[in-house]
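During the first year of the project, the team set up a workflow for recording each protein of interest as an amino acid sequence followed immediately by a discrete structure-token representation. This format lets reviewers and collaborators read both layers of information side by side without switching files. As required by the reporting guidelines, we include two representative entries from the current panel. The first entry is reproduced here exactly as it appears in our internal archive.
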Amino acid sequence: MRIDDINGTRVLFFDATGPAIAAPGDANDLIGEAWGHEATFLVVPVERLAPAFFELRSLLAGEIIQKIVTYRLRVAIIGDISEYVAASDALRDFVWESNRGTQVWFLPDEASLVARIGA
């Protein structure tokens, strides 16, 4: 885990290794870490997310993201999700809509995140 300041935004980067984020309650751990580090933006690598996160019918993504946003935090999922998006029109649409907003982004890499926060 590391903290960085990007254009005045305190960002908490989670490591790619660590416990899988596989249940709605796991959002509590993310939120707690954010509060503990006074971060307002979370960056979660794709590797940390259980495959069910990308199956919208599981409701896992919605429950985790809703909890994070309810606590006025922003989140970026960083990494290659092209395989998941190719397999699901619903996920493709969800990612597209999320990326249009300011609270939840799906981005390919950290450079894209830095560019987007800096914009």
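The second entry, processed by the same pipeline in the following quarter, appears below.
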Amino acid sequence: MALIPEAPRATVLVVDDNEANRSLALHTLEDEGYRVVLASGGEEAIALVEREVPDCIVLDVRMPGLDGFAVCERIRSLPRAAETPVVFLTASRDVETFDLALRSGGDDFLTKPVRPTELVIRVQSALKLRRLSTELREHYSRFKSQRDDMVRLQLQKERLMAFVVHDLKNPVNAMDLHAQILARDQALSDDARESAVQIRGAARQLNRMILNLLDLSKADEGKLTVTRADVALRPLVDAVTGEIALAARERDVTCEVALETDRVLADEDLLRRTLANLVENAIHHAPRRTVVRVLGRRGDGATELRVVDGGTGVPSSMREQIFDPFVQLEGNGLPSSRSGRGLGLTFCRLAVEAHGGRIWIEDANPGAIFALRIPDAG
């Protein structure tokens, strides 16, 4: 019986001046069955392509001598390599680099550090697209254009967010500082000093919103990190309730704290801002002359915190959606006083999940219980 010959392995050319990056790509792609050819620079890569056109090229952008864009343009000028898919690797995550990659003839765009799984998926996709029939190429071109527009919009959003966060933090901190100075000035009237206290409370709330926005951006990029420490829980909760005391007084709401545990292993800043968001949310929804309670206990290798209010509660069908960004739940069975509010609750979920924990909502009869559970570090 004649043996059926095995299909030839796809050849991937990896071009990177960094030896560690070449080694990672080599082992990652060889483990998936690809034949891998390595080049440490642009001229070497072009010479290799002139001798043998690979099925796919993984090309670093920043290299001494010819950069990746120039190498791609040279490769595209070679008749046999005009259609060879090129996946760019770059540490620069910005619109300009993305546009240069497209203009030079790139097919895809990966930012460093590259995860091995993502590299394999992108190479697989590039090779599959290369095998598309001529009839499907037009559809792919339209899809790729839409994908490129979405990536460009995402990069522009990230740049805008970085500008907003950077440009807002300094004036907000200045507002807070001057409000503190005015609040301590005994020459001012009581009403003026009280106004300064209100300004400081609003400035601190705005600063927390800015930091939440920054952390949400980090979470989108997979960069939200947790630095755990042994945190004294009572001082942290007291600081949170003290920070929001003015808002509680304005709504005639009392805060009570009952903790059955003294310590928690958590990122102190993320936990403080999470509790601040939950307590502020509870005060906002609590009826006048009611109590918002902050409860804490330990059990099963984790710390559980609860913020309880006496408001309208949250229907069970809406308890997942309320953690989505900018969600508006009015008209879906949720009272108007419980409609979604910006990014605060979204940040809470991301911060808790970054600890390996979870956050959920229960009935308080009446009201709502926002509960979070943070497991001990493993």
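For the second entry, the following points were noted during internal review. The domain at 11-131 is CATH 3.40.50.2300 (Rossmann fold). Residues 1-6, 331-341 have pLDDT under 50 and may be disordered. Both points are flagged for discussion at the upcoming steering committee meeting.
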